[in-house]
C-alpha cells in the first residue's frame, strides 16, 4: 500500500481498527503496544487471514516506535478502558500520562502525521495530544461524534424498522453525558426524525445514545465497546487517506467557532488529506446552544483538571 497507518494500543479497539484498515486495503498497518508479543502476535494472525480476506496490506507488530516511521495517520487507542461504575473521567489521570508518552514518541518518528485520538476521556485526551505534539489544530482530531451518531443511527433504524443506510444523525458536543444529539438534523431518507417519531420516543433515543458507551460497559463487565469505536476511527482515517472530504462530527480544537475558544469539542468538520479542512458552523436554537455550552463547560473542567496533574 502507498499509505501507512500506525495504531497505538493493540487491545480491543486498536486490533479491531487494524483489522478493518487492512481488510479495506486502506494502508499498511503498524500495531504498537507496550505488552511484549501482543502486537506482534495479532499482526501475524491478521497477516495469516489476509489470503482468505483477499487483501495485500502489510501488518507489522512492534513494542517500539521505529516501525511507525513516516506514518500518514496515527490512531491512538492506548490506555485503560472503562470498568463498570467508572465514568470516562475517572480514567483521566492514568490515560493522560499514557497518551502524553505515546504522542511524544509518535512525533519523533512521524512529524507530519495526522493524529486520531480514541483514548478516553476523549476531549481531554485530545488536549493532551495537542499539547504534547505541538501539531497544528488541523492534525489533531478526536473520534467521538462519528461513534455517537452511529449509535443514534442504529437506534433510529431499530425504532422505525428502516435500512440503516437511510439514516443520518447529528451529534455535537463532548463525548460524555453532556453530548448534544440534534434530532432536527437527524433524518431518514432526508426526512427529519421529528416528523417520524414522537417527542418522547426521540427523547428516549437521545438518552440511550448519550448512555451508549455505559450500556455496553454494563453488559461486557470487563471492558468497553470496541467494534463501533474501531469502525468510527477507520471511517475518519478513510476520509483522510482518500481525501474524500466527508463531513463528519469530530472533536476539533475550536478558535471562536460556535463562540468557543481554545477547546476540543465535537463539531461537524470536513476531513480530507490535510486532516480537518473546515469546521462547519450551523445555526443552533437557543436550547441547542445552551446544551453545547454546558458540554463545553464540562470539557473545560477536565482541561483545568489536566493542569493539576
Ligand atoms: N503504549 C502503548 N500501548 C499501551 C500503553 C502505552 N503506554 N499503555 C497501555 N497500552 C495498551 C494496553 O497494553 C492495551 O493493549 O493499550 C491497550 C488498550 O487496549 P484495551 O485494554 O483492550 O482497551 P480498549 O477497549 O482497546 O480501549 C482503549 O479506547 O475507547 C477507548 O475508553 C477506551 O481509553 C480506552 C481506549
What does this structure look like?
The chain has helices at 12-23, 38-53, 92-109, 122-133, 145-160, 199-210, 212-220, 227-241, 286-307, and strands at 4-8, 28-32, 59-62, 73-76, 114-117, 140-142, 167-168, 171-172, 180-181, 187-188, 191-192, 246-255, 261-272, 275-279. By secondary structure, it is of the alpha/beta class. The protein folds into two domains: 4-142, NAD(P)-binding Rossmann-like Domain (Rossmann fold, 3-Layer(aba) Sandwich), CATH 3.40.50.720; 145-306, L-2-Hydroxyisocaproate Dehydrogenase, Chain A, domain 2 (Alpha-Beta Complex), CATH 3.90.110.10. Helix 3 (92-109) links the parallel strand 4 and strand 5 (114-117). The radius of gyration is 19 Å and the shape is globular. The protein starts with a strand and ends with a helix. The structure holds adenosine-5-diphosphoribose. Adenosine-5-diphosphoribose is lined by residues 8-14, 32-35, 77-79, 81-82, 95, 98, 101-102, 118-120, 223-224, 226, 229.
What's the alpha carbon Rg, rounded to whole Å? 19 Å
- The CATH topology of the largest domain comes to L-2-Hydroxyisocaproate Dehydrogenase, Chain A, domain 2
- Morphology call: globular
Class by SSE composition:
alpha/beta
Mean pLDDT equals 95
Bound molecules: adenosine-5-diphosphoribose
The largest sheet is: 6 strands, parallel
Strand order of the largest sheet: 3-2-1-4-5-6
Q: Assign the CATH superfamily of the largest domain.
A: Lactate dehydrogenase/glycoside hydrolase, family 4, C-terminal
Helix content: 40-55%
